[in-house]
User: What shape does this take?
Amino acid sequence: METYITQVIELLSLGKAADGVHQLTVVVTQEDRQATYEMDIDEFTYLELEVLQPMNGDRIRLSPYAKWDPYRNTLYSSIIRSTDVSRDVLYFACSEAYINEIKRIRNFPSVVMEDGGQEDSVEQPAPQRTHLLRQFSVHMPKILVLFLFTAGLLIVLSITSKGSDNTADTFSSPVGVAQAEEKTDAPKSATEPVSISNTYTSKVTDAAARTEQLVISQVSDRPNTNQASIEVIHIDEKESFFGLPKGYVALTFDDGPSALTKQFVDILTEQKVAATFLFVGQKVERNRDAVIYASEHGMAIGNHSWDHSLLPKSTPQDQSESLSKTNSVIESLTHNTVTLFRPPYGAIDNELVSEVKKMNMKTLLWNRDPEDWKAKKPEDIIQYFHQVEADGGVYVLHENKNTLEALPAILKHLKEKNLKFVIFQ
Assistant: This one.
């Protein structure tokens, strides 16, 4: 496993050199160090990036990682387009050579100078940054006065409003997570999910990336299974769902069903744990028994598109067809309405959100990614679980051999933390 280091790769320019070579320039920032780098890229990757029009004035960050698309037999990566209020994640196909270059510059290369010379990669603060610091120090007294005035005003308002209403209680829960109640033998009355926000944004805001959306849900009843206790989170259909409150954890499995699905279910059932499976429509037709088996053993089953394509690149009609065909084939086997959708690659936009809502489904994302699809051995996946905080995690996993072999150790590790496993609806 790679060591996780906070590092930002920002795109400064994209174009062709005088000799026709495709190039991009980036600045790599880590803590107090910064380096610029100019690299040649292949025409295929260049054209894929150019379609996204990254040089339009917004701040553009390059993802340092890539994933393999088995359906199109190509690597893909992403850029993050940032404005003052939001972040858009845009995907593009790329070459292995491009990924190798990105990996190389993550090691903080020397700064490339215009005259061809080099200097140490640790730079002094840029003039613009120095100018900002000077301006900040000049206006510091005014800022301090404003801060004190605002703090005093908030105190007065809080005192005058105390006891007059329950507004504070509305916001007392952690923002961005769902709240669950443990299922008991006595049936509970159905309660509609409540959300703090009445508007949906398909842009990945900083708050969303930290799972900071409030969704209040109740545990629903489930059919009798051999699980000791199954807790079900009802996701608010108005918001994309990223994470859970403290004390809870969820395992989700993408890209099935497969020849391994029954083995995954058997391990989970033996450990008295339920998980959420997101199935691809085309694979459902080839593994019908696996779908029935998962459903009969109390697993939650959701829609992962018909062919695992990048749906935001499709027309609304194609998106609707992909979702409805997948729902139809799953529901014909489970006899349960499909209420969950996970977009392939996590790629989603306003148009796709609209189609999902039309079908009364909810979008389930994640906040923990072991990248098990590229692990060389089960130990790599297990190590990830030991390196990150499990509390409140929604893990995205895949149906492959290494993950299957790692699953018993994963469950043992999570159980030792006394976390409650949940599934979604």
